[in-house]
Amino acid sequence: MIIKKIHARQVIDSKGYPTVECDAATDAGIFRAMVPSGASIGRHEAVELRDGGNAFFGKGVLKAVSNVNKIIAPKLIGRNCLEQEKIDRIMIELDGTENKSKLGANAILSVSAACCKAGAASLIVPLYKYIGKLAGNKEFVLPIPMMVFLEGGKHADHSTDLQEFMIMPVGANSFSQAVQYCVEVYHALKESLKSKGMNTSVGYEGAFSPRIGNEEAFELLVNAIEDAGYKPKSEIGIALDAAASELCKDGKYYFASEKRQLNSGEMIDFYDYLIEKYPIVSIEDGLGEDDWEAWIELNKRIGKKVQIIGDDLTVTNPQRLERAIKLGAINSILIKLNQIGSVTETANVIKMAKEKKLKVIVSHRSGETEDTFVADFAVGVGADQCKFGAPTRSERTAKYNQLLRIEEEIKSYKGFYD
Fold first, then answer.
1. pTM > 0.85: yes or no
2. Catalytic site residue 297?
């Protein structure tokens, strides 16, 4: 199916800032993709091109849009949309930089995802199955949702230092049952916060952000799990995204709300203490993005007890993942399409992680859109888990609802302890 037109425009994401949207047109129709954006962004991520200047406080994306319309589009029009790897390679070569700083990862990803949707439509197959073919995956399972219920750090003002406190329905037998578990705990938590006179307004990802202490967040989650009628750990576990790079300065980790600082060893002690006291099953970004030696020690010490997930450490980058694997720094990896900037590159990183038996978690960003591409992508590549935010706000629920639709077709669900 020949690409007849590629056109990008500036639209608005869930944080109220501009992002790139791209249309790819073929005889089968017009296929549209939107690009998300992060709040806490790793230093090693591919470059999200912004305009600078006064408009939108410098966050406009008209340069990236122009790069799609004036540089990328002329090179791709007339090509077959089924040639995903070739399409992505052409854009990578047009950019010519290691971090996509010339054209922008947001420009490249918008085209890559739109063409991927066009390819699926041209074969008249569901998008997740087409992505599976691109990724060399034949085992389609619904990922275990990792839903954020309390958020602080850069995601909410005047809340916890640690960024995200999530639950994982590890005892659910299906994706729809997993969603039920999460929704019930979410509302139990809301009622608990209200009864305590706490704020129930939400942060970027739909989670609550009351003024609480870091450890108090775990206590609130345990109570909400029990209030909803579930058993902590065996039915519902807790996952933490510390976003520790945001806490790290000059080799120390600063907890502003507690007026204390920890070194790397003390951070590891802190996590060891937390997992002994609370039903924690997963820790993401527990240390700074370049604190490699400490990551090795963290995984060695508690990696057999919980997931040790690299995000800012690995930024969906094959070179950084290779280093993390070689050093034994992680046992799981978070995957974000816009960290590297194309469908093909992301799928290749996942393939690399799976070959080394790492758990794969496909993630949204704090600045999201109504596009559900990432939900199909998670199923297509056979991700173990997905992280799309709270079970509220339509840019988050759109992804969960898409997975519920896919579940009707494939039925397969892999448990956390499988």
1. yes
2. no
